[in-house]
Write a structure and sequence with these properties.
single chain, 70 residues, mainly alpha, 3 helices, 0% strand
Length: 70
């Protein structure tokens, strides 16, 4: 999810190309499974993780977008 958000932000000229990897890495680093490993996730957990990843990546895009515009 963070990859899709980052690439779209790049294609929309909101971030630099090298920021794509940064956004993905920081989003992945920020992800924590509070319940620990509990086996195969169900659909709700997968969709929740996807939404969280998109939201987290969008926050990082907004932060970088402000730096690019300055």
């Amino acid at each position: 999810a963070s990859n899709e958000v980052a690439v779209k932000a790049f294609l929309d000229n909101h971030i630099e190309f090298m920021d794509i990897a940064l956004i993905i890495r920081e989003t992945m680093d920020a992800h924590r499974n509070s319940d620990g490993y509990k086996g195969m996730p169900d659909l709700d957990e997968i969709l929740g993780a996807d939404k969280w990843g998109r939201d987290e990546a969008l926050k990082k895009v907004q932060s970088l977008k402000l730096k690019v515009q300055s």
